[in-house]
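> call design_seq(struct)
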């Protein structure tokens, strides 16, 4: 492998001992030198990347993505931002017109909270425009799915069908399935769909990889991965086609399989490695299934646990004993408290394995302190705060002051890893950094920021997308910094984030060059 010299750069290293540099030399995929070019004897045959005085930072890592689903979303009906049932149905109708009868129509991104009355849709809305196609439209939260009658028939769902534990099949006034299924009940629909071929999986993953690189991402922590997706990634890696560093967090649904197979955290190489096992404690805010200490505003419902806490604890214990690090989804304050409790009880089980809570959206103040105390990473998605703040105000009221408490968690000493939950939200880390620093939408709302005391500094946001992610996967000794001996992953940005007079301008920045292991995997053409 040839050597690469990054020169004429303004390098933010992420290394507290030496935060700034102008030059970095890459040899055999790792940084061999980081500092000032005057301190380096430059090799004669080195490849040169002249940054033209632009900012370079360690490669961004997204701590929470659904990789295959991100690729699939690029091919499905996009329902993000639709303002009502009619607009959503029209988009489905347009796709149905060019799709053979009987073929499934797949979409994602709708959110009834944006619609007049915030009412959930029904199968009847889709039956009118796609009677000859099974339709399945994932909610923006991914915690419920909207289907038509044809999809219900394909899945064999009737009014007598019992929902699995941790799920709900909504019934209409006629006591028939309304067309919305929540949490684990979604599997009844997805299991009825034709499985994609191995070739389709691989092509879909590569679509997501290309998008990730174009946004400055050099790695992802891919959540809730099944055997088919893992097999596709392994095949791509075996053929040298995988350029994104993927840490696979496997599906809890196949826990016994992974343990019996001997699959463990750390297995693999620096490109594709097993990260751990993904668990679910509760649902989501948008579907009103997050597990709460007290009822949602104006109601009596507290959401629910997706499985009894003692069962979750035993499965997490089995995972730890089997060598798989747990990553546990928890959104409501009751779910987070219960998960912190069980992780505290399991501290002495395989203590070398990292622990993490995914989302950690609403925390009791006392629980915010416990992440650092018991060594649990808060794997959070800052863009959720800006996209969901109106939902929080409506459904959680004053409790929203304890939601998305990034600065509080940082102040307590907790490790924070930033991500997107793509395709739920954009995988763009620049959008995440902007949300974390400003607590405002791209339109600047709310003015002054939503609970602005929880804004974090630019340095903290960059760290959460780099070193924080490395710590979350137990790899902070070899990735996440521009420092000698570390894997040579970095991104050259179009704008100097540190020189901006207004943090709202962060959104102007783009990845110009993305480098993984010393190899440029993306260059912006313009």
């Amino acid at each position: 492998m040839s050597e690469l010299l990054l020169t004429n750069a303004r390098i933010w290293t992420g290394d507290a001992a030496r935060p700034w540099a102008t030059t970095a030399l890459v040899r055999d995929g790792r940084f061999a030198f980081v500092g000032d070019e005057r301190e380096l004897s430059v090799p004669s045959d080195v490849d040169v990347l002249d940054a033209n005085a632009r900012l370079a930072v360690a490669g961004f890592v997204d701590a929470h993505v659904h990789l295959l689903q991100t690729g699939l979303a690029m091919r499905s009906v996009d329902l993000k931002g639709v303002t009502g049932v009619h607009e959503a149905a029209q988009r489905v109708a347009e796709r149905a017109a060019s799709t053979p009868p009987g073929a499934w129509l797949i979409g994602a991104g709708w959110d009834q909270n944006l619609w007049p009355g915030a009412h959930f849709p029904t199968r009847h809305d889709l039956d009118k425009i796609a009677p000859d196609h099974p339709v399945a439209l994932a909610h923006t939260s991914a915690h419920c799915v909207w289907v038509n009658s044809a999809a219900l028939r394909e899945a064999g769902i009737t009014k007598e069908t019992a929902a699995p534990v941790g799920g709900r099949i909504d019934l209409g006034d006629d006591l028939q399935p309304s067309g919305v299924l929540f949490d684990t009940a979604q599997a009844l629909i997805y299991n009825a769909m034709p499985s994609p071929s191995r070739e389709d999986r691989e092509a879909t993953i590569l679509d997501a990889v290309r998008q990730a690189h174009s946004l400055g991402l050099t790695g992802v922590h891919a959540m809730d991965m099944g055997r088919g997706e893992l097999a596709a990634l392994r095949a791509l890696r075996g053929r040298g086609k995988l350029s994104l560093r993927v840490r696979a967090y496997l599906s809890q649904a196949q826990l016994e399989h992974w343990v019996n197979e001997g699959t463990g955290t750390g297995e693999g190489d620096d490109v594709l490695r097993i990260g751990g096992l993904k668990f679910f404690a509760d649902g989501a805010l948008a579907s009103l299934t997050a597990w709460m200490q007290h009822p949602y505003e104006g109601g009596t419902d507290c959401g629910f646990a997706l499985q009894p806490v003692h069962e979750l604890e035993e499965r997490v214990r089995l995972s730890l004993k089997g060598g798989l690090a747990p990553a546990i989804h928890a959104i409501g304050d009751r779910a987070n408290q219960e998960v912190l409790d069980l992780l505290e009880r399991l501290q002495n089980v395989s203590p070398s394995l990292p622990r993490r809570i995914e989302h950690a959206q609403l925390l009791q103040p006392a629980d915010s302190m416990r992440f650092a105390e018991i060594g649990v990473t808060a794997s959070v998605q800052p863009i959720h705060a800006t996209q969901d703040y109106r939902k929080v105000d409506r459904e959680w009221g004053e409790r929203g002051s304890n939601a998305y408490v990034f600065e509080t968690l940082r102040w307590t000493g907790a490790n924070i890893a930033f991500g997107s939950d793509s395709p739920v939200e954009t995988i763009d880390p620049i959008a995440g950094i902007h949300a974390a620093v400003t607590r405002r939408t791209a339109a600047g709302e709310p003015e002054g920021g939503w609970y602005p005391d929880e804004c974090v500094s630019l340095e903290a946001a960059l760290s959460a997308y780099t070193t924080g992610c490395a710590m979350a996967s137990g790899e902070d000794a070899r990735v996440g910094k521009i420092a000698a001996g570390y894997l040579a992953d970095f991104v050259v940005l179009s704008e100097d984030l540190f020189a901006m007079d207004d943090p709202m301008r962060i959104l102007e920045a783009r990845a110009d060059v993305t480098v993984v292991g010393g190899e440029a995997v993306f260059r912006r053409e313009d």
